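Open question from group meeting: does this chain pack into something compact, or does most of it stay loose? Before anyone orders reagents, we agreed to write out a predicted structure and look at it together. Recording both the input and the output here so the notebook holds the full record.
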Amino acid sequence: MGTRERTAERRARSNRSTLLRLTLITGVLLVLVLVGLRLMPGSPFASTAAAEWGEPAGPGGSSATTPGRPATPTPTPSPTLPALSVAPAKVKINKDGWWNWALMDTRTGEISGSANMDETNPTASMIKAWIGADFLRRATEKGETPSDTRMNQVSIMIRDSDNNAAQTLYERNGGTASIKRLISICDLTDSSPSADGGWSRTALSARDTARMGACIADGRAAGPEWTEWLLDEMRAVRGVGNFGIRKAFPAAEQKTIAVKNGWVDRQREQRYTVNCLAIGDGWTMAVETRYALDLGYTYGAKICEDVARQLRAAAAAT
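Structure tokens returned:
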């Protein structure tokens, strides 16, 4: 090969090498341009790029994720509960003696009340609501159907506050063991059986009484078979025991509120004990009182009613 041919061949190889480098550079530049377009906000390629990285696609786009990477959930707003017919308030009672109160929202479990709502008071007949519930639930647990006689005892114990029926059923429940079950089943924190083992001196706080009411309302106390029956009996309380909390409500609403009140004149201590339990729609309320014997039981009954009136007024004002 002559000198001229060799020179031409070198020139050709040089040209091919230059063309190859230019082709490679052009390809790299094209890739960079495409990537820039995919990542540029507003670019038609941006949605795909964002989806590959698990990022929001931008206005009008959809959010996607790579496999194995969860999408960020959209928070669900908490539902707003409807207002109750009663609401917490700063209660003022201008009367002598001792008293406390508690209000429970049974939908949330929130309890409000007086500063001393954890202090206890002897229950008197208010505990009969639990005695009836405990008897009925245990009958179901044993696979027994209570006789008509026993059911009548539960009924008159609740409606008429019959003490003989209460004593009979309390003994069948095991006495103090029944109160221990109350504390356990209804998650009470302040209360205890009486020192002498009797039902009327069971020590319950207003806060625990509201919890007991919730326990009756939700079926833990009497069990699913008997809960509505027991609540209906409590709605049917009559005569001298029909006082207190539900008297603060309109007549039509009173019929829907289940109650069990307790009242006793303690001659030994020379004082009256009056307690009130009410179970309404979405709430339970308890008021406890004790004061000088000569004031009579209507004095305590009025305190129960006054507390309820103020809690009703607070609800109406919101």
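Observations to bring back to the group:
Residues 62 and 286 are 54 Å apart (CA to CA).
The radius of gyration is 38 Å.
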